[in-house]
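Tokenise the fold.
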Amino acid sequence: MSCLEVSKEGKFKEEAEEVTLDGSVDWHGRPAIRAKSGRWVAGTIILLNQGLATLAFFGVGVNLVLFLTRVLGQDNADAANNVSKWTGTVYLFSLVGAFLSDSYWGRYKTCAIFQGIFVLGLVFLSLSSYLSLLRPKGCGSELLHCGKHSSLEMGMFYLSIYLIALGNGGYQPNIATFGADQFDEEHSKEGYSKVAFFSYFYLALNLGSLFSNTILGYFEDEGIWALGFWVSAGSAFAALVLFLVGTPRYRHFKPCGNPLSRFCQVLVAAWRKLGVQMTSNGEDLYVVDEEESSTNSNNRKIILHTHGFKFLDRAAYISSRDLDDKKGGFYNPWRLCPITQVEEVKCILRLLPIWLCTIIYSVVFTQMASLFVEQGAAMKTTIYHFRIPPASMSSFDILSVAVFIFFYRRVIDPLVGKLKKTKSKGLTELQRMGIGLVIAVMAMVSAGIVECYRLKYAKHGTSSLSIFWQVPQYALVGASEVFMYVGQLEFFNAQTPERVKELWKCSLYDFNLTRELCE
């Protein structure tokens, strides 16, 4: 028995001291110990953080146009224009956050700093609304609009909402990747957990937006703006505290350098060597430099040479001038690039067509924000004496997302894995994205059928057809999101080179922000 106990103790000790295989490090910069860092402890903290931060942001963003018209006295055109500018600014700030994360700060520091700015903006908005903007008391509802405001009061308002844009824009593109960093993709069990994380991440985002679209949306629609903003500020503060509490458990990857300059270096170097003659076997290509090799353990993986986009291979061609430079201990990165750097650019070019296809999917959300709401407004929206706001029907979309995420992970994924009889579980990312597009088409067909019946029962501009006939089209849109958007997150996280991962995530964040504001 004593020998068995010693054997077990040694095994547990070995597992406790096992380091991750993907090169991640802990808070002190040491190789991350698997049992003491990351995994679902850190992942759950980040999921809760995402849900609370989403609630806070959309608690402001969803009804911002109503605040501008009812409280600040702007007309509909000016209010819509200002909200569009604000949304566009969030997009731009997402690029800033991604650039700083990739180049200098890393994901953890970027998330922490921008979340602090986010909380500051929400506190400023809550204070300015409570102390000066909501005057006379009780104004801001549909029946009672507020009076005029001074330039200082307007300046404080715009400062607060653009601080919110800066904080959320810089934080959001990084948090999903930082959450995925908590799972070692080189480990079989953690690799599968990493795939599951993206589904739960999207679920957390939807649950946060569900609360902001319903409860906070109701408060703000009734003119209780200050309470809604304070709830958003409290939620953002709780998200920040929760994020900081998890600091000892997080796994980190050090910044990989400026991704934009690396991309441009390949293009410039290839252009400079357009006239050179290269061998077909690739023996004259620059594989890797000493610095790249020494830092490869920090998740900077060497990418093997491929034969596509051959014109870019010229950037890695070693000319006589490059040989002379290397003998002197220096080479010009704008004339010679390692083949891994060239392959990173090739990866981006190969991903572009797939990314462009996903843009088409956003058309469905445009219809959900406009056509679906207009259709619902022309239907019977009352049950007994209770009126259902047409825009609130998007709650069925969010509920559908929650249901289908669990259904896919618990039913479809294991079933497909058994049928395929392979080590990889479930459908591939591209297969899911394709299924998502098909379901999106079904949603629009459903909306068209409902419209035909609405017109059939229409009298004097309204219809006796109940608004609940819209539930199937909203549910189908939600199901399509589970396949399309979650598959998109997983695909681009797996296929994008590490050095440009955050910048690429900006495009996904911009798509998702448009989706949520549409709801």
Summary: The two ends are 63 Å apart (CA to CA).
